[in-house]
Design brief:
The protein is α+β, with helices and mostly antiparallel strands. It folds into 2 domains: about 25-100, ATP-grasp fold, A domain (Dna Ligase, domain 1); about 105-240, ATP-grasp fold, B domain (D-amino Acid Aminotransferase, Chain A, domain 1). It is built from 7 helices and 12 strands. It comes from Paenibacillus pectinilyticus. It holds the Pfam family ATPgrasp_YheCD.
């Protein structure tokens, strides 16, 4: 079993419990792109083997055969034929096309969540930390280094968003439940993996989504939080598994 985004997505999509939390994803081709664009009006294109938000592009239909391409902080508007030419170039580089989820926002900027799930040898998976990554102004991706965004606690992000704060604990609990179910599904195929970093999202209605799964997540993100206790817990388990 490979470790690409596509391999992990295919494995997760075998679960009837997880399928409602996975945005539709296909190998990128002209036909799959236009099928997804006609269905959703807005998609994400990303390399199947990259990490850190590199190469992630948003394409949105503006109407009247016009499409906006948002690459990093750069935006351009193309015709339908120009957009198709753009897609053909990407097709040869092993990209995926994915439904774009309308992320909940903090002060108008989208955020997603990093949910850390870990296990010690012969022990069950556990959620050891959560935080929210808020995209920098003008950026689509939430990767901190790439978009110059910032991190806050998951609870704080929900408080600052337009999601009902009365449902905060239920939303956090649902994130935990989905992440643990996903780790249990992936675990048997990746027995050497003891730390998983789930990039998850809450959309504007509060629905939980799994965007992708990282097997070598950057632990230092949690050092950016004022409270360092989550980092120390995550790092201790990570180190114990390397002995």
């Amino acid at each position: 079993m490979g470790t690409s985004k596509w391999s992990k997505h295919r494995l997760l999509s075998q679960s009837t419990l997880l399928r409602p939390h996975l945005p539709e994803t296909k190998w990128l081709s002209s036909s799959s792109f236009w099928q997804m664009m006609n269905k959703y009006g807005e998609v994400i294109i990303k390399p199947t083997g990259s990490s850190g938000g590199h190469g992630v592009i948003r394409i949105k239909h503006l109407g009247k055969s016009k499409y906006t391409i948002h690459d990093g902080a750069k935006k351009s508007t193309l015709s339908k034929s120009q957009t198709n030419q753009f897609i053909v170039k990407k097709h040869s580089r092993s990209h995926l096309v994915q439904r774009r989820i309308s992320l909940a926002t903090v002060n108008g900027q989208p955020f997603d969540l990093r949910v850390m799930v870990q296990r010690r040898p012969h022990s069950p998976w556990q959620v050891t930390g959560k935080l929210a990554k808020v995209a920098g102004k003008g950026f689509v991706v939430t990767n901190i280094g790439k978009s110059h965004g910032y991190v806050v606690t998951a609870n704080r992000a929900i408080e600052l968003s337009k999601l009902p704060t009365s449902k905060s604990s239920a939303l956090l609990g649902k994130l935990n439940q989905v992440a643990l179910t996903a780790a249990a599904k992936l675990g048997p195929s990746y027995r050497w993996v003891h730390t998983m970093g789930f990039d998850m999202a809450l959309d504007s209605t509060g629905r939980v989504w799994i965007i992708e799964v990282n097997f070598a997540p950057m632990l230092g993100l949690f050092l950016k939080l004022k409270d360092k206790s989550a980092f120390h817990k995550i790092n201790a388990i990570h180190k114990s598994n390397r002995k």
